[in-house]
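Schema walk-through. Below, the input block comes first and the output block second. Nothing else is stored per chain. Lengths vary across the set, and this one has 97 residues.
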Amino acid sequence: MGYIESVDWVLGLTNYETSGYTASAQAWDLRRMEELMDRLGNPQRHARSVHVAGTKGKGSISAFIASALNYCGYSAGLYTSPHLHTIRERIRLNDQL
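--- output ---
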């Protein structure tokens, strides 16, 4: 799959927040994901991370934290959505697209 096809695929994913789709609680059951993580050895328990949540300013705060970590010599990955100019902005490692 080339770059254009990849971007089209990512942008074609359903956004359940805005689509008006409603599902039962069973559709959002996390047991399958928990089983997958168990089979993989629960890597999420060993990853050092900062989870930024809230209503406003998550992108700015996340970028600030990643930049500060990079400045201090840490290797930092950053995922943000949506992007401003190009979809490549969504994933960064050490301030590089």
